[in-house]
């Protein structure tokens, strides 16, 4: 398996622009997570899905952020409008929960810079 | 909600020495404790995990211990090598509370050769 795939790997945009980050989870996995990593706040869970349904979006910072999972093999995280404080590395992770083990497989991340 | 604290934030050891990273958690219902390693430019990767019905688990040079009473768990790396240099994260989750992991702030480990 190719692992979790994220695109783009790097994104540089200007304040106010819309940004869309993409994720393809590992085939067969039923959970998908979006995280944000910054030096100041560490690794934060933004939202997660189970069987394409959002379960917990309490980590989404504000209404400018939205996430969708239209099918089992694709998810997007959108920021509109983007702001400089959104600059971070965004990770997608997936897992197949078996026997209570919650191993999450992370993608390589998207480094977002908002100027 | 669950809160995970991790110490130290940075750790520098000589090659061949041992390294220990400690975490505490707040929710006594947490029952799954993984450790992730993150290398530069990559996503975190699971290196070892432990469930609350086990006190210790070992995998070659790495081991994790869990003290449920004190609500803390530790990662032990023996015979450290330069390739162990990375950021290490602990996490905790409650299996009955969905599939959500709460991560510690991370420890930057530097192994000097």
Give an overview in words:
Chain A is 0% helix and 54% strand. Chain A has 115 residues and is mostly beta strands. Chain A is globular, with a radius of gyration of 13 Å. The mean pLDDT of chain A is 93. Helices cover 0% and strands 54% of the residues of chain B. Chain B has no helices and eleven strands. In chain B, strands 2, 4, 5, 9, 10 and 11 form a six-stranded mixed β-sheet that branches. Chain B has a five-stranded antiparallel β-sheet with strand order 1-3-8-7-6, with no helix packed on it. The chains are: A mainly beta (115), B mainly beta (113). The interface between A and B is medium-sized, with 23 and 24 residues.
Short description:
The complex is a heterodimer of chains A (115) and B (113). By secondary structure, chain A is mainly beta. In chain A, 0% of the residues lie in helices and 54% in strands.
Strand percentage of chain B lies at over 45%
| Annotation, overall tally of beta strands of chain A | 11
CA distance, first residue to last residue of chain A: 36 Å
Number of helices of chain B: 0
Estimated helix fraction of chain A? under 10%
Biggest sheet features of chain B: 6 strands, mixed
* End-to-end C-alpha gap of chain B: 41 Å
How do the helices and strands follow one another from N- to C-terminus of chain A? EEEEEEEEEEE
Structural class of chain B: mainly beta
Shape, per Cα inertia axes of chain A = globular
Order of helices and strands of chain B: EEEEEEEEEEE
| Structural class by SSE content of chain A | mainly beta
Tell me the strand percentage band of chain A. over 45%
Strand tally of chain B, please? 11
């Amino acid at each position: 398996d190719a692992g979790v795939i994220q695109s783009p790997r790097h994104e540089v945009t200007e304040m106010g622009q819309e940004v869309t980050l993409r994720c393809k989870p590992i085939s067969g996995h039923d959970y998908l997570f979006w995280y944000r990593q910054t030096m100041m706040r560490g690794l934060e869970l933004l939202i997660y899905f189970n069987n394409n349904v959002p379960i917990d979006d309490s980590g989404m910072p504000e209404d400018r952020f939205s996430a969708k999972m239209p099918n089992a093999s694709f998810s997007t995280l959108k920021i509109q409008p983007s702001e400089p404080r959104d600059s971070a590395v965004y990770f997608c992770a997936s897992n197949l929960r078996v026997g209570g083990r919650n191993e999450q497989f992370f993608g390589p991340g998207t480094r977002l810079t908002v100027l | 909600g669950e809160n995970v604290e991790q110490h130290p934030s940075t750790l520098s050891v000589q090659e061949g020495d041992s390294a220990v990273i400690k975490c505490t958690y707040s929710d006594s219902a947490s029952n799954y404790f993984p450790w992730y390693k993150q290398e530069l430019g990559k996503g975190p990767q699971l290196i070892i995990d432990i469930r609350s019905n086990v006190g210790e688990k070992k995998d070659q040079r790495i081991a994790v211990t869990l003290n449920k009473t004190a609500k803390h768990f530790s990662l032990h790396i023996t015979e450290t090598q330069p390739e162990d240099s990375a950021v290490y994260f602990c996490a905790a989750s409650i299996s009955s509370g969905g599939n959500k992991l709460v991560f510690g702030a991370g420890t930057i480990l530097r192994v000097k050769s």
